[in-house]
Structures are given as C-alpha cells and as structure tokens.
Design brief:
The chain is an alpha+beta fold. It is built from five helices and seven strands, in the order αααββββαβββα.
Length: 199
C-alpha cells in the first residue's frame, strides 16, 4: 500500500509542472497564423543549428525526415517538466505538427529554454514517431550543439533516431531528454479543422 501511495504522489508531482508549463496546450496551434509562426520559428531554429554546427547539414542530407521543436521550456526545483511544439518533415516536405511533454523528478535547479532536433534515419523510424510510438528511455541522451565543435560529424543513430539540442539560455543542473513523449498531428488534419471552424 505504501508503494501505491508513493506512486500516486510521484505522478502528481510530475503532472503539476507539466500542467503549469503547457496550460491548455494542443498539439497544433489553433489558427493558421499560429501554425505559420511555428513553421517560421522552426525554420529559424534549424538554420541556427546549422550555423552553430555546419557538419549537421551533411548529417541531415542523408536522413529520411526530422522533427524540430524551436522552443522547449524546462524548469523546476526538485521536480522538473518540459513542453514544446514542433514541426515534422518527411524527405524535405512539411507533413505535420507535434508536441513534446516530459516529466522528471530529480535534482534540478533553475530553468532552461532550448531547441531540439530529432532526426529520423529511415521511414520506419519516422513512422513510429507519426504513430505516437516514440518515447525516450530514462537514460536517453542528446548531442549538444555548441560552436565551434562539429558534434554532428560523429553523431550516431540509436534505433533509427538521433537527437540534437541547443541551449537558448538559462542554467539547469540536469538536461536529460529521458521521459520525453510525443504526439503527432498531420498537416491535413489541422488544416481541415481550421476550415471547419471558419464561418
């Protein structure tokens, strides 16, 4: 019984920061303008990744697809959570939107905002993501992009997926991507929902 109470308490601790971070969040921005802003922000973030590490361009040229989250917010003292919205590409074409949630319990101090790039080596890896079957294990790690190092030149795929992060400021003792989960929505679904809502 004690372990059940401990599990419930831990779940509540994780859920609280996530609720504060994403408020009434949805996978896709509601308006056409909001979706375009997300696409623009994602492209700007990708450009910055490639400026910081030019070797990333060659790495991505061989990839099947990618998802980019321009602004992931992460924060907490003892309990941490993260949330971000992103855009998904397949063979260079934008195909949909995604959001990421993460809940962690550990020694975390301060807050951090960063961009995250998930690169898919194969169609199968991207399909897992599109089917909401991608979640990072507790010990998952990302390649941190920092100029002038060419970190992407030595990056390797793990089960068809490679993850890169780039800090946008702030300080955090623990910046693991473990526990991240993703929800995907095709572009056509988002566009249809907006059209149906118009008078």
């Amino acid at each position: 019984m004690k372990s059940l109470f401990a599990l419930i308490a831990t779940t509540a601790l994780i859920a609280a920061p996530l609720a504060m971070l994403c408020g009434g969040c949805e996978t896709t921005p509601k308006s056409q303008a909001g979706r375009q802003n997300l696409v623009d922000d994602s492209q700007a973030a990708l450009n910055k990744f490639e400026r910081e590490d030019p070797s990333l361009r060659d790495f991505m040229s061989r990839a099947y697809g990618y998802a980019i989250f321009p602004d992931v917010g992460k924060g907490g003292v003892i309990v941490g959570g993260a949330y971000g919205k992103g855009v998904v590409y397949e063979k260079g074409a934008m195909i949909g939107y995604s959001d990421m949630t993460q809940g962690t319990v550990g020694a975390q101090i301060g807050g951090q905002t960063y961009s995250e790039l998930i690169v898919f080596e194969t169609r199968g890896a991207l399909d897992r993501f599109k089917n909401n079957q991608l979640a990072f294990s507790a010990n998952a790690t990302a390649v941190a992009i920092k100029a002038p190092a060419a970190a992407a030149a030595t990056a390797k795929y793990d089960n068809g997926v490679a993850i890169f992060t780039m800090s946008k400021g702030g300080l955090m003792a623990e910046a693991s991507i473990g526990g991240q989960k993703f929800t995907y929505r095709p572009k056509a679904d988002a566009d249809a929902r907006t059209s149906a809502a118009m008078p």
